[in-house]
Each structure stands twice: as structure tokens, then as C-alpha cells.
Amino acid sequence: MNASGTWLIAIGRLALILGAGVLAAAPFLFAPAQLQILTQFLSLLVIAIMWNLLAGYADIVSIGQHAFVGIGAYAFFAFAALAGVNPYLSLLLGGVTAFVFAVPIMLVIFRLRAAYLAVGSWVVAETLMLGAGKLSAFGGGSGVSVPISVVKAFGAQAAARYATIYWLAFALAALALVSTYLLMRSKVGIGLTAMRDNEEGAGSVGVNLIALRVLCFLWTAPFLGIAGGVITLQKLRVAPPASFSITDWTVYVIFIVVIGGIGSFEGPIIGAIVFFLIREYLAEIGLWHFILLGVLSIAVILVEPRGLWGLARRFVSDDLIPASFRPPRQPVMSARIASENAEAS
Amino acid sequence: MAAIWINQIVQGVLLGGLYAMFAMGLSLSIGVMQFVNIAHGDLIVLVSFLLLTLTSGLGLPPLLAAAITLPIAFVGGFLLQRLLLQRVLGKGVLPIILVTFGLSIIIQNGLLSAYGADTRKVAGGAIETATIPIGGGVNIGVLPFIIFLSAIVLIFALDRLLYHTRLGARIRAVSDDVATANLIGLKSARIYAVAMGVVGATIAISAAFMSVWTNFDPSSGPSRLLVAFEAVVLGGLGSLWGTLVGGVALGVAQAIGAQFDAAWQILAGHILFLVIFVIRPQGLFPRN
Amino acid sequence: MSDALLNIENLSVFYGEFRALFGVDIAVKAGEIVSMIGANGAGKSSLLKAIVGQVGRIEGRIAFDGDDLARLSTPEIVARGVALVPEGRRLFPSLTVEENLTIGQEIGRGGDLGFDEIYRYFPILWEKRRQKTRELSGGQQQMAALARALLANPRLLLCDEISLGLAPVAIAALYQVIPTIRDRGVAILLVEQDITRALAVADRFYCLLGGRVNLSGLPRETTRETVAHHYFGG
What ipTM does this complex have? Predict the structure, then answer.
């Protein structure tokens, strides 16, 4: 690795650490309006990290993960507002509920492969959203506000509430990042990477492949569920289209991960930053920012499938957060496969 | 009382014909190129808006407008495959999903900014309200009936194309084994593009019927995709007639659900799909 | 060999970083059968794939009747009169025998070898012409694969291990047809692991080992010991 590469990596890691520090101290540094944006940023980051885990590492492309966000939102409301459970505990229970739902959902959609699984997961999410709209206890199709008592449990004054909710989002994001990172550095991650590199050999370790995918799918559910609760605290209401919003929790998330860099840990972070910058500074172009995001995503897939971080990796030869799976830039065969090819002659 | 229910169910069956038409193109692209085009529903809506512009914008009669969109959609499908989708085929699961997903978002928002969010409909004239009484208080709408018959004709036509023409043999060849096709000298990219052109034609036909029968708006795409997908999977991958059965089953489920309210209408379709899928994941009439 | 139809000069084949052929020279004349023998991994399939344009990176020259095939795409090469019978038959399983053969005929040059003659060579294919090829036995499939290539009226026929996995009766039936094709003036390049078959039918032969030609000549002038020695290396 050349000297400038080493320096770039050091600077990058320093930036990460500084960024984390700023985020940790944010309520002391930023006004409520900006704090709310950062809270949204962190919530979206959690969902992005989880989607990246599924699509970038475990080869599960789901466009229905927003179902778990909605489940977590509604579960949080059920425990906190309807059953009177401690609101902080209710957040956790939202995650547990999402996990419980994840088991049958997984059993259904894992019968489908690849793109069928993607659309199948979408069908499941739609069904759950419509089903939620049938529950009168939650306000039916138009939803209902979170009761003041529950809201106040997070802080009597607005400023304190914003800070508490922010720190909840921060804690969730930090937990999501660190724990998923450790998961990918463990045998699970190594197993997944090995499976990705060695498609032919996957057959001989077929059982393990399924077990690993199951693990990753179930791993993401509780994080998404708790995120759903946190998001509900920001929106202050549950409603089918908002809590189960495919736009907010799937479309944006996919764009974030793809543009930032799928299959790496830096990717979702970079993607989320870019996304929020586009949203803040290009807000006046309205609808066109969707079109821009769509065009950017397609351009990324065609030009550099590993996203912005993949572009950066062309100049920097190591990761800031070393746990990447790197899909090949072109269909280059490894030496082993090449020699097998030639052996067939 | 019974007449109301029978009317609804008949309506549901005929609706299934429209759903089957949506699903034909999806079934073809899934079977031949092995990908699920997430923008499929949005393409149907795109052509519908094109028809709208031709009819109310330029004042053309609906049949002429439909006849114009047919070759446009064929060429559109051909170029879409040739210029964009071909470049991400064979590179794994993710890229094609992401590209068609991005395309879906671009189309939806492009239509939204060009036409606004209002629901639209293409005026079809007297045929929209004409009905045929078949006794016992049961009426069949002429338009839905024509649509159902057209779906059957379309299936026959596609079957004929795939199993009794040279092009059809080549399309089936590349869907069997594209690597071998390349090895012996077939131009698989061109065959894929033609197949996608055929898909475009089915999209144009579906759009023509849909835009006259029901309302649509820029965000209608995803719901068309989901119902088409469900019809294909329910019917069994690779079976065109199975797709018709799947579509009819969904239409009837929705008609029954509609008796309660609009949300139950859509929910009933999804629930039927999930239940049948869990019991019989390979669908009702799977090929091979 | 300047009067050869196929003249391969200094051919090297690369799969990424991996090199499968090292500067190979091969020539095949019209109306002759050339056998190429070699063990697994010697590079035989790579050579055939390179000729039809299915290998990413090659160096050297593949001259076919004056044209350099290295710069052409597979459909262009096939249209010029090169037909491949791929290793493992590689028919289209859900298509009928007739449909498979028709595709072979359509992508070829056109010529006087048609279905009548093919069905005379392989009567079983006429019997099974309406059946899907996945319902045929291994030997019948191999006949269909050969028939598909022949219907393209090639000037150069490439056969990749057509005897692999077949019963002796089936192999014999196939190898009866090969000389007949040669006598029509077609240049035939046979790749085989089965040394006896390959040398029995060949006019000339090459032996490949580790991506290099290490022996060539006339079968009747070469001893079995020499052949075995070069086949296995030593």
C-alpha cells in the first residue's frame, strides 16, 4: 500500500471517530430542528445497515423489510398506549414482536428465490399494512396519535424529549453498527463470504448456507422493530401508510445502500450522508429528487456496482471498517475456477 | 340477493382476464430471461398515460391510439432490453432487481411530474356501460367480457408464437440454456430483445384495456405488478393458461372482498395468494 | 501448412490470470480428419472454444480460409462455416429433436446437406424427431448434437469429446459417420480422451500436454509407446 493510501485511511478512520463523537454529543451542539434531522438520519441508518446485511452479505434481496418497521411501530403503540407498559420497555417489546413475526414471514418467503423473494416480501408487507388498517384499536385506516402520557414519559419538556429520543436513536444505531460488524467478523460473516466466493462449493455446505441466511434475516427484525418504535416517537402517530411506508423505509434505504456501496460497512454510512445532503439542499426540486436518486442508482449499478465507497476503494486499498464483501468488478474468475475450466478440456 | 353475489363473482372472473393480461408479459420475461421486472406495472401505467395523451390530448379515437402504441411499445421493450437490461443480465441477483426498481421509481415520479396525481381514465364511449343480460338478474358488462375473451386470444397467440414459429423455438432455446445458445452461434442478446418487444406488445394491449375499464394514476404501477406477480406464481411458473386461472382466482377473491370495503378487496387477493402459496408453492399448474 | 483451411499460429488462451494454451500451432485441411488427444486439463476444450470465439482473451492467429477468427463474434464465425459439437452434447432439453436440428440448420451456411440425409445417417432421430431431447438416451443425444452441427453445412467441424460417457455401440455408430463427412470435403478436428478411437479414424493427430503440442504426426507411423509417453508426459 502506498504512502498516500495509508494517510487516506488514517484520515478516514479519524473522520469516523470524530463523527461518532459529534453525534454522541449532538443534543449539546445542535438546535432541536437539526436534532430531529439527525434523529431521522440515525433511524434510516439503522434500517440501511440491516438491508445491507441482507442484500450485501446474505444474498437476500427483500423489498418488504418496511413490514418490520411497521410491526415495531404498531407493537410499541400497543404495549405503551393500549397496555400501559413502560414506554422504554415497549420499544424493546416492539423489537421482540418484530422478531416473532419474522419467523412465519421467513418461512413463507424463503420458498421463493431471488427476485421472486423480493416481490414476495413486498406482498407480505402490503398485506400486513392493509391488515393494520383494519384494526380499529389503532385508528383503522387513518391511524391514531400517540397519547401525551406516553410522549411525556420521554421527557416533560420538548427539548429534553428531543434529546432523549435522539439518544435512543443514537444508541440503536451504534448497537446496530457494532453488533452487525462483530457478526460479520465472526464465523457467520466468514461463512457468508466463503459461500459467495465459492458458488460451486456451496452445494456441499448447503445446510449451512440456509442456516446463515435464516440467522441474518432474523437478526435484522428486532433492530427494524425498535427503529419502528423510535420513528413512531418522532412522528407521534401510527398509521398504515406512514408506519409501513415503502417509500421511507425501503425505497430510500435501497438508494442509500446502493449509492453508498453495498456489501461494505462504509457504504450505508456514506449513502445516508449523501442522501440527507441531497434532501436538504435539493429540497426545492421536489419530485425530481426521486428521479435523480433512481438515475444515480442505475448509474452506480452500471458503472461501479460497489457504489461510492467502491469508487473510493480504487484509490485506497483498505477499508475504514474492515468487514467488506467485495463483489467482483467484472466476471473475473479466480485461478481455481479457471484451472477447473481448463481441466474440463 | 343471489343475483348480486353472482354478478360480483362474474365480474371477478372477467376482472381475472385483465389480470391475466397484465401477467402474460411478466410470465414471458420471467420464463425467458429469468428476471422479475419490478417496473412491469409502471410500464403498463406509462403506456396508459400515453394513450390518454393520444386520445384526450390529440383527440384520436381509442382504437387508433391503441394501434399506434402497439409498435411503440414493442420497440420500447426491445430497446429497454438491448440498451439497459442486457447489461445487467447474468451478473447475479442484485443488479437486475435494483435497475428495474430504479426504473420503477423514475417512471412513477416522471409521470407524476408530467401529469399530476389525479386519477385518470381513457374515454371509451358507449361500450363502457353496455351490458348483456343473461337471465336471473345477472348482467355481464360488454367491455369486461371483451377483455376476458381478448385475454384468451392473447394466450392462444403467445402459445402459437412460442411453439409454432422459428422465433418461438429460439426464444425457448435461450430460456433453456443461454450458454449453449451462445456457444453454437445464436445471438441471444437479440433474441432476448425481441422477446422483450413481445412483452412490450402485451403491455400495450393490457394498458389499452385497463385504461378504458378502470381508473389509474402515476402510482398505480406497483399494484398492477403485485397482482400480475401473484397471478403468475399462483398459476405456476411457465404455464400461460395457469396464469389465466391465477388471475381469475384473484379477481374472484377481490370481488368477494369488495362486498365489504375497498381495503378488503385488495387484502382478499393478497390473502388468497399467501394461503395458496403456503399450501402449494409451485402453483396450480407448474411446468416441469 | 499454407493450403490448410484452418491455420492456428502461436495461439495462447487466457482465463483471467490463468493461461491454458502456450503458443500452439495446429492446421487442418479440407477433407481430412485431425485428432487432438490429451488428458484432462491439457487445454483441448480451450482450443475449440477459442476457435468459435467463446474465450475472452487470446493471443495469436486463428486463420480460417484467410479470415482471422480471433476478431470475430461466434455468430459470425458460425456463419462462415465453423460448427461445434460441444462437450456434453448441450442440446436444448425442452425443444424437440426436430426443433434442435432446425436451429442448427438455420444458423449455418446453407448447403446441400439437409434433413433427408441426416435422417439416413441417424434413423433413430427420425423416429424420435417429435420428442423432447431430454427424453433421449445419451447416445441418441450425441447423434442429435452431431446432426445439429452437420445441418449447418460446415466447412470445418469441431467435435469435443463426442464419445464421452457413451456405450461402445453408440460410439461406433457415431464414428461411422465421421469419415463420410470427411469424404464430402469437410475439415474435421476431433478432440478426444479415448486414444484408440481418435487415432483409428484420424488422418493426422496432435497430442496436447499442459497447454502445449508435444507430438504430432501420422497415426500409422507412430508407435503406441510414443503416444502414451507424450499423452501422460514424463
Answer: 0.90
